[in-house]
Amino acid sequence: MDQPLLQRDSGPGCCSCRMLKAWLPILSWLPKYTLKWLQMDLLAGLTVGLTTVPQALAYAEVAGLPVQYGLYSAFMGGFIYTLLGTSKDVTLGPTAIMSLLCFSLVGGEPHRAVLLSLLCGLIQAALALLRLGFLLDFISFPVIKGFTCAAAITIGFGQVKNILGLQDIPHEFFPQVYYTFYKIPEAQIGDVVLGLLCVALLVMLMSMKTSLGSGDDAPTFSRVARRFVWAVATMRNALIVVAASFCAFSWEAYGRHVFTITGETSQGLPPFRPPPTSDTTANGTVVTFGEIVEDFGGGLAVIPFMGLLESIAIAKAFGVIVLLSLAFLMPAFYYIPKASLAAVIICAVAPMVDYQVVAKMWQIHKLDLLPFTVTFLMSFWQVQYGIIGGVALSGALLMYTMARPQIKMSHQGVLLIQLASGLSFPAAEHLSHIIHTQALQESPPHSVVLDCHHVSVIDYTVIHELSDLLRQFKRQDVCLILSGLQPNVLEILLAADLEGLRYADGVETALQMGSGNLNL
Question: The pTM is what?
Answer without folding.
Answer: 0.74
